[in-house]
Write a sequence for this structure.
């Protein structure tokens, strides 16, 4: 009788393990299907011609979104504003050159890492509220960061110009833990001088 109990317990444990593996596989498959269908959903709801494709802002807070949009609009950049859930789909539809993240967006690090891994040509600017997040942004391969919800619009303008017009590979000041002083814009010499 004891042998039968042991076999039953072993079978029960194996069944639980198989159920866990099935649950994980089902979740991963659902994520892959959602990722694959995301661009199609955007095409149906917005149309591909409505995707701007220069700068993508991934944000959660309406007041931050408005402030970022004001700067992008005033500088004449083509941009899209999306929630984190839509970001990967938009990144599949257009060849963005810059992504701006509001650090409070859910799923932010997953998208950040996906961009670093699969879209190396895209530069990343993150709105941060702590030194730890600022350091993690730069260590993780971000282009630069801007401080919080009440960010200085001039710093964002500097980041945009430095990243998109002057094509600096990374903000050297922030990478070296120095504050932004706009020297990348003021002290820049055009490429033609070196050619």
């Amino acid at each position: 009788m004891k042998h039968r109990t042991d076999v039953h317990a072993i079978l029960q444990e194996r069944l639980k393990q198989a159920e866990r593996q099935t649950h994980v596989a089902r979740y991963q498959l659902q994520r892959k299907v959602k990722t694959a269908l995301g661009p199609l959903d955007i095409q149906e709801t917005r149309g591909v011609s409505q995707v701007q494709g220069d700068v993508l802002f991934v944000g959660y807070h309406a007041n931050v979104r408005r402030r970022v949009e004001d700067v992008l609009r005033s500088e004449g950049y083509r941009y899209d504003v999306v929630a984190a859930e839509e970001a990967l789909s938009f990144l599949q539809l257009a060849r963005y050159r810059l992504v701006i993240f509001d650090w409070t967006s859910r799923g932010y690090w997953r998208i950040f890492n996906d961009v670093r891994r699969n879209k190396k040509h895209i530069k990343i600017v993150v709105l941060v509220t702590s030194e730890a997040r600022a350091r993690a942004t730069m260590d993780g391969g971000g282009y630069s960061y801007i401080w919080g919800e009440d960010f200085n619009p001039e710093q964002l303008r500097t980041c945009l110009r430095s990243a998109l017009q002057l094509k600096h590979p990374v903000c050297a000041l922030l990478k070296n833990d120095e504050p932004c002083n706009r020297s990348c814009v003021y002290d820049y010499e055009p490429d033609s001088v070196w050619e």
User: Anything to note?
Assistant: Residues 1-49 form one domain.
